[in-house]
Amino acid sequence: MGLDFFCFGGYLPTVVLSKEQIQSFHTNGFLTIEAISPPEEIAVLRDVFERLLKTRAGFNEGAQFDLVGGGEESSVPKLLQILNPINYAPELRNTFFRINAIAIAKQLLGEEASPFFEHAILKPARSGRPMPWHQDEAYRFEPDFEYKQLGIWMPLQPATLENGCMHYIPGSNHREVLPHRSANNDPKIHALECCGDFNPADAVACLIPAGGCTIHDGRTLHYSGQNHSDAPRWAYILDFDLPPARRTEKRDFPWHHEKQSADLIRKREWLRKGGFIVESWRMIRRGVPMNRGRLAYFMRRLGRALSKR
Ligand code: NI
User: Fold this and answer.
1) pLDDT surpassing 80 at residue 9
2) Rounded distance between C-alpha atoms, residue 173 and residue 151, angstroms
3) What is the mean pLDDT of residues 127-136?
4) Alpha carbon of 260 to ligand 1 centroid (Å)
5) What is the pLDDT of residue 74?
6) What does the pLDDT read at residue 4?
7) What's the 190 CA to ligand 1 centre distance in angstroms?
8) Contact (CB, 8 A) for 183 and 132
9) What is the DSSP code string of 242-306?
10) pLDDT at position 3, please?
11) Distance 290 CA to ligand 1 centre (A)
């Protein structure tokens, strides 16, 4: 059974946030929802991601890699990430998860909210590493733009303390982007870790069923623990934003300057060999609207990606 089974041209979202939930999101920086995708869809999604893992989809384009691997691509990944899996699995275009996520993003960010990025993360059974504390906005390559963004994080297995559920620091969404660095201070590692002033003891753990989700603001500090369980733990994350606007005040994200992760090097090579044309087409196909602000942002980002040594 493919995801075509769930094709729903004309289906309406099944999740509508209450005023209290919207208020809670803006106050605390995160929200938990018990069901955003039905169990049948979750089973299909698990198969899709296992297939992408097996075929190493996107590896040569720098779109599949170990977030904490330090460039040792031959070793077994401890925290595997697939960027924009929709590029390699068209059946992901039509899911209840996506329909509901878009509706939620519009409720929280406004009607102009649109998808800009998505990813899947695998924490292998018994060995899956934690995702270090971070704010998603710190991953943005262009600090001179203003971002309003959120991530919708859906586990494909129940998210528990044992297998590495999401943890959030309430209210951290009201802070600026804090200092980050490469995990373990190793620029060959893709993952960032926040080295700013915050107290992990303030964290709230979010236990949710498979097909539930957590939603977090781009500045909410978050972390997910190690997978000690006997089952792999997949999460599928859809990210939405408003068109980035140029900031009046300059700022710097110095943690990007020294990055030498193997995936970024593969991606740069691929973009230089013409991949930027494919990348542009995929963005249009993913429904990323190209208004003026977003176009300026992407041109700047592409120029930087191509020009780095
Ligand atoms: Ni994150």
Assistant:
1) no
2) 13
3) 94
4) 20
5) 55
6) 40
7) 13
8) yes
9) PPPEE-SS----GGGTT---HHHHHHHHHIIIIIHHHHHHHHHHTT----HHHHHHHHHHHHHHH
10) 42
11) 24
Amino acid at 265: I
Determine the distance separating the centroid of ligand 1 and the alpha carbon of 133, expressed in angstroms: 8
Q: Which of 16, 9, 47, 55 is nearest to 33 (CA)?
A: 16
Instruction: Count the neighbouring beta carbons within 10 Å of the beta carbon of residue 117.
Output: 18
Give the distance (Å) from ligand 1 centre to CA of residue 137.
Answer: 9
pLDDT at 43 over 60: yes
Query: What is the Å distance from ligand 1's center to 301 Cα?
Result: 20
Residue 1 CA, ligand 1 centroid: distance in Å: 31
In DSSP terms, 145 is beta-bridged to: 246
Q: How far is the CA of 222 from the centre of ligand 1 (A)?
A: 6
Nearest CA-CA partner of 80 in 59, 101, 98? 59
CA 246 to chain centre: 22
Q: In angstroms, what is the span from residue 191 Cα to ligand 1's centroid?
A: 10
The Å distance, Cα 9 to ligand 1 centre, comes to: 31
Residue 161: phi, psi to the nearest 5?
A: -65, -30
Cβ neighbours of 70 (radius 10 Å): 19
